[in-house]
Structures are given as C-alpha cells and as structure tokens.
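Issue 218. Parser rejects a valid record. Input:
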Amino acid sequence: MKRLFQRWSKKSTTASTVAHKTGEYLHPKSAQVLLSSDRRQALLDQIWEQTSISRETYQTLYMEPITRYAELVQELPASETHHHSYLGGMLDHGLELLLYALKLRQSYLLPIGAPPEDQAKYADLWTAGIAYGALLHDTGKILVDIKVETLDGKAWQAWHGILKQPYRFQYIKGRDYNLHNAAAMLLCSSILGKDVLDWLSSNLELWGSLLYLLSGNYTEAGVLGEIVSKADRTSTALNIGANPEKALQAPPTSLQAHLIRGLRQLLKEEEHRIKLNMKGAAGWLTQDGLWLVSKVVADKLRSFLLSQGVDKVPTKNSSLFDELQSHRLIEPNAEGNAIWKATVTDGDWVQEFTFLRVKPSLIWGNEEYPSLFGGSVTFDGQPEAKNDTQAPITSPAVTSTKTTVQATPATHFVEVKPVIEDDIDDVLSLFDDPCPITSSQEQSMGDDDSLIPFEPFESPSPQPITTAQSTWPNTEPAQKISPTPPKASLQVTFTTNTTAVELGTAFFEWLKAGVQSHILYINDSKALIHIVDGKMFIASPGIFQRFTSQFPELEKLNPDQGQAWRWVQKSFEKLKLHHKTENDLNIWTCGVRGPRVKGKSIKGYLLPTELFFNIQPVDNPFVTIEHQ
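Output the parser choked on:
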C-alpha cells in the first residue's frame, strides 16, 4: 500500500543470507553506519518533520536516544519468524513505530481534558513521551527472547552496554512471549538518558502513563498505550505482507510461509488438488482473481498444515480468515473484510457461494496459469460477515429471476458474528512514500530472512527402556503393540461405516506417526504430549481436537451428531491401550509447575512409552502426576 514501508526489510535480508550461509559473526557497527541507509534517513527526516521543533532541539531530544537505541539493538531482528524477522529488523521496527506514533499523535489534544493553555504548554513533552514509548516498545525482546554470544564465547546482555565484539545470536526455546512487554523498562535509562528522564518525570500524568506502557500494562497507559498499540499493528501489518511478492519472502518457518505453501499445495499438487472451473468445484479462476470457496478451502488448508506438523494453526475458520487477511494473502472486499459473496454462472447452472479472493500470482508465480473460467463470477458489493460455514446462499425469489441450484445440501446454520472493523487502512492513509524505489534496487534486494544460528545444543542422551519402571498399580493395557517406523502422514478415509475400533486405531496410528516424526511436540511448553513418570501423557481434549481438525469430515460422520472429538476419544478408549488410575478411571490429572506457572493442572491419558519409542525419553520435570 505504501511501498516505502513495504520494502524496507528486503534490502536488509541480503546480509542475513550471506552471514547464515558462511557462519560468520556479525560485526558491531556505529549508529552513523546503521542509520546511513536511504530508507532509514528518509524515516529520520519524516520523524523530524512530525516534531515541529528546531534541528538543534531535535538532535538532543530525539537523535541522541535514537543513536543509543541503534547502537544497542545493532542488527538484531524484531522477531524470530513473524514481523521484521531479518537482520536489522529491530532497528527498522523501532523507527517505523516512532514515526507512526508521531503521525497518530496529531489526532489527539493532550493531555486529554486539560485546558487549552496546558495542552499548548505540554504539547512537546507529550509528543516526546509518545515517541519514546514507541521506540522502547519492543526493546525487551533483546533481554528475554534472544541469547547473544560474542566472539570470545561470553554471553552478552543489554545492560552490559553496546556490543564491542563480533556477535551471533539465537532465539531462546520455550520463552515466555509476553515477558518482553514488561522488560522494556530495564533499558529506559540507558537509551533515553538522565536529562530526558528528568524532563519526562516533571509531568506526573505523562510519567505514569509511560511507566505503565514500558511495564506492559497498556490498559493503564491510557492514550499512550492506544497510540503505540495502533502504531505497532500498522508496522507489523505492512511488514508481513502488503503484496504477494513481499509475502513470498517470509521466513520458511513462519505461519505466513506455511499458509502460502498450503494454498499452493491445494491448487497445484495432485494429492491435495482442489477442482477448478467446473460444477462441484471449490475454485474459479477469472480475470478478477482466483475465487476459492471459503469453508472448503479453510478446512482443507487447516487439515494440510496440521498434517505437516505446523503449530498454532487457527481452529476456527473466522480466525484463519483473519490470519490470511493480516498477512495480505487474500484480497479484502469493498468493506475491507475477508469474505466475498458471489454468484457462479456456468450455462444453466447458477450458484451462490462465499469466497476468498486470491491473486493468482501468489499461487502460480511465473508459471503458466490454468485456463480462465468460461462462465462468470459476479460478486456482491455488500459487506459479508465472516462465517465458519459454507452452506450455499439462496437469494429471495421476489428480488431475483435467476435460478439457484445448490451444489451441496445445507446441513445446519451457524450464527453469523459481526465483523470488527479494522482501522489499519485508516492509519496507513496518513503516510506518503517519500522515496520511490527503482527496479534496479528491487533486483538487488535479498529474499532470505534466515538468521544466524548457534550450533545445536546437546541434549541429554536418553536411557534405554528397562523393565524396571517406577511403582505403578497393576493397570497394564490389554494390548501390546511394538513401535513401527513413522509414517510421513496418515492416509485414511472415513465413511459412515467407520467403526469405533477403526476410528480409535486411526487415531493411535496418527498419534504414533506424529510422535515418531516429531510433527507432534513432546515436553514443550505448548505441547499436548509429555513424558511423565516414564509414561506418555496425552492431554485431553486438546489432542483429540487436533486430530479432528486435521480430519474435519468427522464432524459430519459422527453418528451421535455431537462433538467429533468426543467420538474419537471414546473410540480410542475401546482399544484399551492406556493405563487406568488406582480408582479404575481413564483420566489422569497432572500438575504443572514452573518458574512462572503455579497451581495449573492438565488432564489426559497415560500410555506405555514402548508403544512409541525404542529408547526411553526423559521425563518433563515440570509435569507430575497428582495422585488422588
């Protein structure tokens, strides 16, 4: 939308690519070098224009903190696989946030409710406070998300001061993704300096709001929290994919990249291919774009991603649509929403559907496109709410003379939720493109967002399984099954004749394949599977819901017309592979303890580890059985 901010990350990826492939350390740079690029200079010029102060004052109040910020964050990224996940991403994100926040500040008279003379008196102070809050917003990440090591093998911490030796970095596994919001306060003094802090603390209302903001309490931060949050969303939305070309440069492990790969698989690979341009199809290609039936494609996309071990796939279609739209992988309708209502006409066959509209270049790139649809797809300009169903839509007969033939029978109705308006476009309309890019610049930019990793950490060697385990009640499972080599994915077809034993066995095989191929995580903070007291614990209902999300057809085939995961759970129990409690119950309760987790419990089943592993895995020290 605004090309300057859409492209900034592209140029920075080149250094990342070279460093990653050669294993080199990054050399610390001065702020003058870090800020010398055309795009960052353009940012700094726009920031100064928004402050309405002299160059001399701007140098003291803004450039000195920005200089210290640049020297501190160096070329660290702003995230591992999400926005600004490239070398220099943290610096770009901080400058963008500062500019966006200053732009938004122009719409506010601050402090709110104060007399006009006070608003005029403290205008520069509030403007600076907003700018500092935006600049420091994500600095906590370099304290709690990233491990930095210098050339001498020592760990570097941000409170040590600026880096003076070559360095490399690694993201910390199992980190608390919310902790960085509360950590920014630790760097406030080193970046802003005592003179700026003295000035800010002279106004208690502003000072309090800034302290709340930098400690992660955006609600209490009031208008500062509102402005910085909106600026952050704007910077993020622009960076993660304002057009297909930018989206294709996402790191290969990001959800954005997985969504692109999934859509391509559904349209191009024979095994998963969605039919196009015919009756009963789920997609139509026209000059306006690629029209994909929303419910069908969402279910298939989710199923495919889960089968590939992709984590954090939205379970609701409405959330999946939001994810696709936030990454700009689908085109919004006239109202800015993801869902289009359109009519497909193919001779005498006329049918209305709800669609997602995708740019064909995202799927086929420079390849030859399939033939265009010979009929027509006529879309409605009226807004359409996001919905988790795809029952065909029928129009009132009194207002239309066209014939509507249902491609599939409607089975049920789901309440349509109101659409929440997104104000990102309103924010983006505030910005101009001060330095147009040339085609030669585009071609010189890298397309790999890889980061510099550490060497893999050595994990404790697992011990061979022995017959002597911990003391357990005599509740051994009725069947003994030896582990088999993992399958890449479970290929199974469910029908109305599928029995409980067949369904339970399918779940077991899926579970075993996922564990042995590492598609399903074990002993991770977000995992549904843990090793507890020498046994394998599977969390319920989460593990069964994950299975039914991968096989959405089970919802319609469920004979009880209830929740499909309950059907799978009961079918699994019939296999009698699990241990029972001393009270002959199927479900066990485990307590979870950790540095930031107390008093939490999870419920699920315990299974013999020898069903899944040839070598006994280590227990999760933070999960223990609660004996009743």
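Fixed in the parser; the record now loads. The CA atoms of residues 416 and 472 lie 50 Å apart.
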